[in-house]
Write a structure and sequence with these properties.
Arc Repressor Mutant, subunit A; single chain; Bact_HTH_transcr_reg; Chorismate lyase; six-stranded antiparallel β-sheet; transcription; two-stranded antiparallel sheet; alpha+beta; WH_DNA-bd_sf; DNA-binding; UTRA
Length: 267
């Protein structure tokens, strides 16, 4: 039996289905992780053919609310979080801003020899001792980000004696070890999750994710921290703001263009 009768008129049928499905998601009829009924069942629900249903589901998938996988079905995704890469807010503060309950689970902590890429990022000799921390950042009980942190072992000797789940790592580094962070360089690239990261993030292996690699520097340019953060596709949307520096042009009395202002940041 149809949930309600679709009406012929100026509003296309697929958009009517889209609006009702969107409302059902907002009302919690299906929760994140739930699989929606098959397309044919939804078509019976709305008393229409498969075409409006498919178009409505495709639109919700483009919005990041659903994931459609051939052979598995259509699943409800967790709401995407807006993560501003330029902000200095902590993970807990960001989650509170989104009305979510943050938590951190320490997966691993150890002192180990630095692999080549980590040693290079921290300007350390090959195989120098580093402190490795693997932490799962959780929002409302759901894994959101897997964070792998690498720190110079000699500089932060004794860090593992602190509570790294209930204390802010940033505050510990600043208040207990005198670290000063003045800038960070970050890169973002799409990857496929390996089994280890996929398991911790409750995702299937080879799922598309974003890898954010970042190095934080102190006031004299020395690298202090290197991190790898794994964010599964559909969980968050990354944003940043950049300043656009351009020449200011004005027209002189003779009508010719003249560069009357010195170019900002242009050498």
């Amino acid at each position: 039996m149809a949930r309600f009768r679709l009406e012929a008129g100026p509003t296309p049928l697929h958009h009517q289905v889209y609006l009702d499905l969107s409302s059902a998601l907002d009302e919690g009829e299906w929760q994140p992780g739930d699989r929606l009924p098959p397309e044919r069942e939804l078509a019976r629900r709305y008393g229409c053919s498969l075409i409006p249903v498919r178009r409505a589901l495709d639109e919700l998938a483009r919005e990041g609310r659903l994931e459609r996988t051939r052979g598995r079905g259509t699943f409800v995704l967790h709401p995407r979080l807006e993560v501003d890469l330029a902000t200095s807010e902590s993970f807990a503060d960001l989650m509170h801003m989104h009305g979510m309950d943050p938590d951190t689970r320490l997966v691993d902590s150890s002192v180990e020899p630095a692999e080549d890429a980590v040693a290079a990022a921290l300007a350390l000799p090959p195989a120098a001792p580093i402190i490795y921390l693997e932490r799962l950042r959780i929002a409302d009980g759901n894994p959101l980000i897997l964070e792998q942190v690498y720190l110079p072992g000699e500089r932060f000797r004794g860090l593992l004696n602190h509570d790294l789940e209930r204390n802010s790592l940033y505050n510990l580094l600043v208040e207990q070890f005198g670290a000063r962070f003045v800038r960070a360089h970050e890169t973002i690239e799409p990857i496929l999750l390996r089994p280890h990261e996929a398991r911790l993030l409750n995702n299937p292996p080879a799922r598309l994710a974003l890898l954010v690699e970042g190095t934080a520097f102190g006031p004299d340019g020395e690298p202090i921290e290197f991190t790898r953060s794994y964010i599964p596709g559909g969980r968050a949307r990354l944003s940043f703001e950049r300043k656009i520096l351009r020449r200011q042009w004005s027209t002189g009395a003779d009508g010719a263009g003249g560069d009357t202002h010195p170019p900002e940041g242009d050498t």
